[in-house]
Amino acid sequence: MDRATWLLVGSLVALLLAGGGICVALTGQNTGDTTATLDVSPADGTATANETVAFDDLSPARRDTFERARNTTDSVDVPSTVSYGVFANYGYVRYGNRTYETAVAVA
Prior knowledge:
Layout: H1 3-27, E1 36-42, E2 52-54, H2 60-70, E3 76-78, H3 85-90, E4 92-95, E5 98-106
């Protein structure tokens, strides 16, 4: 390979590495240094289907976080390895024969 080809390949690799770093930084916005808490309480009224996620559809880590919050009257910390978006986006979780309202606070 001549020098121009090596420069082209090197430039492409550098761009890919830089782009990958930017993607990792942007997609990890709700993990790491962010401190989030989850509060769960029985829902008043009726939640619509598009506002509710089934407990069985949550990941095991989210189920654990939800159950910890459901079993206390206090807010619980969301581990930095657990994405809290599903709780914030839906707002309600269907667990057993009950619906629970979820609230996420981010510090």
